Amino acid sequence: MTAKPVRRDAILSALSECPSGKWIALDKFSDFMQGAGFEFEVTRDAWKLYLSEPQYGSLGYAGCGEWNILQFRYILCVLFEYAATLGLIDVAYVHPRNGLKDYRDQWGADDLEWLSRYDGFRSFRLTNLGAYCLGMTEDFKPAMPTTSLKLTVLPSLRIRIRSGVLLPAEKLHLETWAEPEEPDTWKLDAEHALEAVERGQSAAEFAEFLSSRDDQALPDTVEAFLLNCERNGKALKTCGEAALINCRDAETATLVCAQKELYGHCHRCGETLLAVTTTQLPKFRKIARSLGLGLV
């Protein structure tokens, strides 16, 4: 295979020439890339790629490994698997059996319903986020989703649906911070909330989510709960891995730990145990040997 950056840069460069917010057929996009000079190679040796059987089905034969089979499928893959999942584009997709049929003349394709899962990828639309990430616009403001949901947030830490339709994304948001009690009721849960904060979610954003769907100000108990979870969820921080060293006695542990070169990297964990940051183990071993001590 050729170098990935070269392939992907050609596709992204062509993508940055597309108008934002308009649907573009993939075959037209492919024609544009070829016509505008955004060409690339997928493989240095197409003879190693084949359908069904390496000798007769090789893509190295003339007319077998052309742009539509190799480059076009690679374009579909990059846009579908990367650009779409990152939110850079919207996609229009049908089942691949109803998609591309341009591989039918290939040797070994007689029994194939489709050549790849991407054969059903028909068109795409560059999103505002995509335009921003590609440097086409200077600012990006995410569109606020419209909702009919109205909630009642109670001092008992319960959240009830008052009216409207609960969208799947809203339900997921509630269940991230609260435990379902009934079909229309959730209760804020400390364990759920701590897990959310540990994953990097913001209690302030969840409070805004609740406030935007409740006509009343959030109860003090709810605000205090979320503030406490935000604070406690970040109370401990992983600073890296450490090795646990068992010394033969307390005197040896005291001797080693007292070495100023190990300050901040060697800590007592009891009478005979020392915790040493993994990155400092070679230095720890060197200092231990200077003291006439071996590490096994």
What is the count of β-strands? 10
Structurally, the number of domains stands at 3
Query: Structural class, from secondary structure content?
Result: alpha+beta
Spatial strand arrangement across the major sheet: 4-5-7-6
Strand composition percent: 15-25%
Count of helices? 10
Taking pLDDT < 50 over at least 5 consecutive residues as the criterion, the unreliable ranges are none
Largest sheet, strands/sense/barrel:
4 strands, antiparallel
Mean pLDDT over the full residue set: 91
Described by its quaternary structure, the protein is single chain
- Intertermini distance: 45 Å
How much is the radius of gyration in Å? 30 Å
Q: Given the C-alpha coordinates, what overall shape results?
A: flat
Which H/E pattern describes the elements?
A: HEHHEEHEEHEEHHHEHEEH
Helix content: 25-40%
Report what the structure shows.
The chain has 296 residues and is an alpha+beta fold. The chain has three domains: 4-133, no CATH class; 150-232, no CATH class; 242-290. The protein has ten helices and ten strands. The protein has helices at 4-15, 26-35, 71-83, 128-133, 168-177, 190-198, 203-211, 220-232, 250-257, 281-290, and strands at residues 23-25, 89-93, 121-126, 150-153, 158-163, 178-182, 185-188, 242-246, 266-268, 273-277. Strands 4-5-7-6 form a four-stranded antiparallel sheet. Strands 1-3-2 form a three-stranded antiparallel sheet. The chain has a three-stranded antiparallel sheet with strand order 8-10-9, covered by helices on one side. A hairpin with a 2-residue loop joins β6 and β7 (185-188). α6 packs across α8 (220-232). The longest helix is centred in the N-terminal third of the chain and has 13 residues, at 71-83. The chain is flat, with a radius of gyration of 30 Å. The model has no long low-confidence stretch (mean pLDDT 91).
